[in-house]
Amino acid sequence: MLSAMATCNSHGQDSSYFLGWEEYEKNPYHPINNPNGIIQMGLAENQLPFDLLESWLNNNPNASGFTAQSNFGFKEIALFQDYHGLPAFKKALVDFMSEIRENKVTFNPNNLVLTAGATSANETLMFCLADPGDAFLLPTPYYPGFDRDLKWRTGAEIVPIHCSSSNGFRITESALEDAYQQAQKQNLKVKGVLVTNPSNPLGTSLSMHELELLVNFISSKNLHLISDEIYSGTVFTSPGFVSIMEVLKNKNLMNTDVAKQVHIVYSLSKDLGLPGFRIGAIYSNDDIVVSAATKMSSFGLISSQTQYLLSQILSDKKFTKNYLTENRKRLKQRHEMLEKALQKAGIRCLKGNAGLFSWVDMKRLLSAQTFKGEMELWKKIVYEVGLNISPGSSCHCSEPGWFRVCFANMSKETLVLAMQRLTSFVDSTVKKTNQSRHNRNSRKPKSLPKWVFSLSSFTTARSVKNGA
Amino acid sequence: MSMWRPCAEVERCVGKGAAGEGRSCGETSCSRAGSGVVCGREESGVVGLILSITQIKLDGLSLFVLMAIEIVQPSVGLSKMAVSETHGEDSPYFAGWKAYDENPYHETCNPTGVIQMGLAENQVSFDLLEEYLEANLEATNWGQKVSGFRENALFQDYHGLLSFRKAMASFMEEVRGGKAKFDPERVVLTAGATAANELLTFILADPGDALLVPTPYYPGFDRDLRWRTGVQIVPIHCERSNNFQITPEALEAAYDHARSMNIKVRGVLITNPSNPLGATIQRKVLEEILDFVTRKNIHLVTDEIYSGSAFYADEFVSIAEVLESRNYKDSERCHIVYSLSKDLGLPGFRVGTIYSYNDQVVTTARRMSSFTLISSQTQFLLASMLSDKEFTQKYIKINRERLRKRYEMIINGLKKVGIECLKGNAGLFCWMNLSPYLKEPTIKGELEMWKTIMHEVRLNISPGSSCHCSEPGWFRVCFANMSEETLEVALSRIHEFIKTRKQ
User: Fold this and answer.
1) CB–CB of B377/B161 below 8 Å?
2) Percent of chain A with pLDDT over 70
3) Residue A92 lies in a domain
């Protein structure tokens, strides 16, 4: 009775990424009411600088209301549904984007398309750039939500660019070529490459070398490049953030065809911690893409009420300057806290400089260096340790044993507790492993419980959140 | 002009091998496009003219009027979707908007400018909303609670704020005078009815399938239902002879027509009250439509976006009432679309909803709504507003009265110069009949009249052809998006125009 699209599984909600969420929802940690509950470390939210926004609102009590401070009263805002977006908001947003990039690049508000979140922006770009059956190349590991956002309704395909821990998961020329060849083998027409910079889940920003590789690659193969820069404001330490636009500018490519093939996605869900407000944007140098995407944005416009509020917040340059500095400072502190605690527990992580999470290497805790082993470990960590972290396989990582651990969506105390739990777990696991090595001959092989294999039969996801 | 191919823009297929160019027959070996080419698909990289064809039934003769629209040279490497014209924005519906934007009327600054009567906005009840906001500041400032803002800003659950879903369900009940019940668990939130209609189409139909839509219909449907979904619209032709009501014969004819083109029909989509007719659908007709979709085992989508704009509460019958009276038998094929853009006059806030009696549709629609969530800030505000029963009851009642008054004003004003309108009882517009004044009883004549009215009378009204009306000469005229004074000015301009026309 329903369409093929409605009945297929491309919504991606059977992934372990969402299942861990479900488990957390059933038994969420609370310091007083449920101290033994599961701590949510699978949600890339930024809760660290909320007080800054709250104090701004306290100092600007009329901003969220509709008293006519400007010429815009309630009626004008309520009626405003122009898909070109509120001019004051677009101007403030491009200025903010510029500020994040240390004003090394400037953006033209006329090339900015507003969408209800980056989720909508990514999907809209796919509708504009790919026909059903066309493919985009994505470096692994990547944000699990892309499987739904890029493929579900568009009919597009994702072909992975395999990155490995041997070089810190950096994108290499051979990996790009291999992915391209792989697509050819599958008879898929490659339309472009999509990267997240800084990367989710790696928590690192792309190097200049990688960015130049990408520009050369798309130029020679005549492809599009989508750079999802949703975490650009969370780069807290060197080597700093280099936007793809900066690279184009430095290489004097801004007025060439290549520049028209590069598109940026942005959002305020991570940098400003406002995922509920659904503020996303597409930036493109190609007028036809801007035009088509603008029309498509009809299907996911940002509430004018929200555009109005944010235009005021972002126009306050004193506020934005302070906010960006504080945000980076606090993220750096948290990241260091997590890194140190992991180190103490004997766990390494990828050296990160951005994002709301760390990419953690738990290979030594695996009972077997396989994805089955990874799932087994993940289940233990969720149920026994009480931490919801995201297994690398849900991010399509090609090597088992890596996990994404979020650190910015909880209080310091909760993070400390989470690390204590993890440390005890690691200690006991290492002890067990040593013991088992000692008792190797007498030990029976452990059979995996059934639920490890039946993940795909979870078809109902109840309270599932978006875009983390 | 270099070689061209029929494109996906052609709206009405007349069957394989039909005479004339530019017709999409949906056949895989169309005699026009050449064998091996699927007719109706645009070839990228071809420069030429897309011919848009509108079929008019007039006295049993079928006439074809070609409207040439220049094709944009597609950019290298974009999707077909991005360069197609299915976004429908070249329709006169949107062109009139442009004329207004370039020379907008203002009572003091530009008294000779174009008066916008092509925009179905509800501006008659803003004072009530403003009053509410002034008395309930916590609805917009999170009650000054530290945790209020934080919680709200973080909330991105696609189930939507429970308090808002509850408030929406109860508001929908109130609009229907309590004659139907709505379960908050079946309310799916989307950024506007535009998103809701597209989403439902993605869920209920596969690319190439069709939805049957009665004419005349809201021009936006051409984009909303077809563009990204690849679904087609097959019109259910309605005629003035019975006040454009949907008949069982028309339903069957549309269905058969689709089948004759090998197109699979997945559902019927109706708007009740109707845009552009400005009239509610009678209960008897709703029952017939329900029987029809049940017989054919297809879906029924009812867009009730104007339900709160019926001038008399008891004249609007919701499909929900009909389903309730049937004990919800066969209701899993029914889905209602609603929005606050018209009844509450808040199109900028992007508040739409799908209410489905089908569990699988609710689940899938929820997941898909990830692409089109309502800002939690806005959900919070409206949860507060719509759960205030004192406010909502007062609002609904006064809004209806004011719209009715406006309607009577325009109808009487037009009658004075002998212009007839369809008898309406809802909406933000009237369906005006200018066919006696057309130079020729054709779409060409209608568009000529439309241009004259736009440029000489300086009123932007919507020609019936942009709503796919099968008879030329009808125009949709909005009356709720301006002050009473401006409406008077518009009416006096019409008076002048008719006087000169009669001479």
Assistant:
1) no
2) 91
3) yes
